[in-house]
Write a structure and sequence with these properties.
heterodimer, A: mainly alpha, MetI-like fold, about 75% helix, globular, B: mainly alpha, 2 domains, 11 helices
């Protein structure tokens, strides 16, 4: 028996060790390095100097960075809200569609995910171009003048971010809605609930876990957005990701880039930790109220 | 009872929103006009220009070198990881292992790019195709592991025990039973790894060096510094390639699933 357990342990380590070593080397160590390098001075050759300093951290407390941090936050929150508002009816419709249609609709949602991300951003850049079709349509409707610019504006960033993240939001909401027992909604309607009431009081709580996943899969990558604000945002649409890239490629100041990245790491961890704590609390209250998980 | 039409209306609008930009992009790739606002007839000018561009071909070559080697390594690492997670899932080691594998899926790409850049600079590794390869294997392994893990969850391990009882060696039972049954999952993981590697821009941007321009890096500089009509043509070709790959892999996956259940 003893040798059997030992052999099992050995096999486990044998198949685990390759990824364990690889991910430690290329995920854990680099992430820790970001926090270490934030306290190192920059050297004039674009590398990392000797000794330790707090100057970089102090430099983060300037108004211009606070503005960027605030913009990153509100753009991400707004994008998440719009994505959820669009994904809820879409996920609901797909889940309630006849089986034959369901797979086709799902495939339609997934296909944009398989197309190049850069290509999709570029498609919007040419759509919103001053000579592009959106501007012409708006002008024809009298909604835009010749000097209206659609590109290089925070609104353009939100629009393109909603476009790229929408499929990721629809999928978890659909997955949760598919398992949801729609007879509950019908029961609520029979008992006199209006359509919106039954949606809000029965359907939404029923797909809670899918909803949380959907929020996280938009909000977290949105905080780290870089290409979208870079290509359609212009200076007034810059986000934290753009500042990190500028510190690396324009100023060659790696410690400064590290300090900004450390802020981003903490910003990303915050919603994750919040969800974990809420889930733990939710479980406890479920038990107290005698609800099945 | 009458259902509200509102969700259906929103879904139709969402689909139009998802596809309209792609449709316009494809149409514009056949439009000879320099500033694609007016339709000037069907033409393949931009495709011809594209095929004459040596920079594009160099970028395609780099992209394929990276993607093929990344797929090979990440499929091996990811499959082993998925097996470990499934077989020994209850142990403390596997909980740490799972958290590690999950990391690249959650962390925004820019953080992965910048942290890898710091690591390569600190370790004095010269930036180039090799550092791109290391970075891509890191995130592709996680995606392969999750894909294969999904398949393993439907796998009945008593079949392997039966084979062992009937005298098969561990190697034989792995090679003759486990690997064939996992093949659809491994193929799906490999396709995903390949596509992710070909498509990755942000992480590649941070860890690329001189002479290691991949296709997304080339497309980015074309978008940023002009040549839009050529990108329309290139994008249309990329769309055609990925769509064919997706349809083929779905066909393969369903056929495999059928043959496994029929056996």
């Amino acid at each position: 028996m003893g040798s059997n357990i030992l052999r099992r342990r050995r096999t486990e380590w044998l198949v685990t060790l390759p990824t364990l070593v690889w991910l430690s080397l290329f995920v854990v160590v680099p992430t820790l390095l970001v926090f270490v390098i934030a306290f190192r001075p920059a050297n004039p050759y674009g590398g990392i100097g000797r000794g330790w300093t707090l100057d970089t951290i102090r430099a983060l407390a300037t108004p211009s960075y606070l503005l960027i941090a605030w913009r990153t936050l509100w753009i991400s929150l707004l994008t998440t809200a719009i994505c959820i508002l669009l994904a809820l009816p879409a996920g609901y419709t797909i889940a309630r569609a006849p089986a034959r249609w369901r797979n086709r609709l799902l495939l339609l949602v997934i296909i944009p995910f398989w197309t190049s991300f850069l290509v999709r951003v570029f498609a919007w850049k040419s759509l919103l171009h001053p000579d592009g079709p959106v501007k012409r349509a708006l002008e024809a409707l009298g909604l835009a003048g010749p000097e209206t610019t659609l590109l290089y504006h925070p609104a353009a960033v939100v629009l393109v971010m909603v476009y790229t993240f929408l499929p990721f939001t629809i999928l978890p909401i659909y997955a949760a809605a598919e398992k949801f027992d729609f007879r509950l909604v019908e029961a609520a309607r029979d008992l006199g609930a209006r359509p919106f009431q039954s949606f809000r009081r029965v359907f939404l709580p029923g797909i809670r876990t899918g909803l949380v996943t959907a929020v996280l899969v938009v909000f977290i990558p949105a905080l780290g957005s870089y290409i979208i604000p870079d290509l359609v945002g212009g200076p007034s649409g810059e986000m934290l990701g753009n500042k990190i890239a500028q510190r690396v490629f324009t100023d060659r100041n790696l410690p400064h880039a590290s300090a900004l990245s450390a802020v981003l790491v903490l910003a990303v961890l915050a919603p994750l930790v919040a969800v974990l704590i809420l889930q733990r609390k939710g479980k406890k209250s479920d038990i107290i109220m005698g609800e099945a998980p | 009872m009458r259902r509200s039409r509102f969700p259906i209306a929103v879904t139709v609008l969402v689909m139009a929103f998802l596809y309209l930009p792609i449709v316009i992009l494809v149409a514009n790739s056949f439009n000879p006009a320099r500033f694609s606002s007016r339709w000037e007839g069907f033409s393949l000018t931009w495709y011809a220009r594209l095929f004459q561009s040596p920079e594009i071909w160099a970028a395609v070559k780099n992209t394929l070198i990276v993607a093929v080697s990344v797929t090979a390594v990440s499929v091996i690492l990811g499959t082993a990881a998925a097996y470990a997670l499934h077989r020994f899932g209850a142990s403390r080691l596997q909980r740490v292992h799972y958290t590690l594998i999950y990391q690249p899926l959650v962390v925004p790409e820019i953080l992965m790019g910048i942290s890898l850049l710091m690591a390569f600079v600190a370790a004095g590794v010269p930036l180039g195709l090799f550092t791109i390869f290391l970075a891509h294997v890191t995130f592709c392994t996680s995606y392969v592991a999750m894909t294969v893990l999904g398949r393993l969850q439907d796998f009945d391990f008593s079949v392997i025990e039966a084979a062992r009882d009937l005298g098969a060696s561990p190697w034989q039972s792995t090679r003759k039973i486990l690997i064939p049954m996992l093949t659809p999952g491994i193929v799906a993981g490999a396709l995903l790894a390949f596509t992710l590697s070909v498509d990755d821009f942000v992480i590649t941007f941070f860890v690329a060096g001189p002479g290691s321009t991949t296709l997304p890096l080339r497309i980015y500089s074309m978008i940023k510094y002009g040549a839009p009509p050529m990108i329309n043509a290139l994008s249309t070709l990329l769309l055609a390639v990925t769509l064919t790959a997706v349809i083929l892999s779905r066909r393969l996956a369903t056929r495999h699933a059928n043959s496994v259940t029929h056996n």
